[in-house]
């Protein structure tokens, strides 16, 4: 079944986010290998949880590309979680506005495209190919 172009764009954006999370996993593994951790157990757990998150976001990207609603829904939840992290990055004792903005802008763009894709799917607006 052909999907709306906005769903394709959303899938690509989700795949880029998954790639960024995979890069984060690699960075965490490098820090772990360098002994740059205080708690080995916590560091390993964080690597595993981050890898699971990367796999989930990649699965949402593939499902969105295929026009499956659970992928779009999962992608929306991911964007809301990223926005919560961005808010945390700009508040508190170690606030960093640049980091918060760097997280928020792609999340907002992806969220908007996902909402457009959801609305298009709801109207049966699959692109005619």
Automatic annotation (TrEMBL):
Domain of life: Bacteria
Keywords: Membrane, Transmembrane, Transmembrane helix
Membrane-spanning intervals of the chain: 43-64, 76-95, 101-122
Protein known as: Histidine kinase
Source species of the chain: Microbacterium lacus
């Amino acid at each position: 079944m052909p999907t709306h172009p906005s769903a394709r764009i959303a899938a690509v954006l989700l795949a880029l986010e998954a790639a960024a999370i995979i890069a984060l996993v690699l960075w965490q593994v490098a820090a772990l290998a360098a002994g740059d951790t205080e708690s080995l157990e916590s560091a390993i757990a964080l690597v595993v949880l981050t890898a699971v998150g990367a796999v989930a976001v990649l699965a949402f990207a593939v499902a969105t590309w295929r026009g499956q609603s659970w992928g779009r829904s999962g992608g929306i939840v991911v964007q809301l979680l990223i926005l919560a992290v961005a808010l945390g990055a700009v508040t508190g004792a170690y606030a960093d506005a640049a980091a918060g903005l760097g997280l928020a802008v792609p999340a907002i763009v992806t969220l908007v495209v996902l909402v457009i894709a959801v609305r298009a799917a709801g109207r049966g607006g699959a692109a005619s190919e």
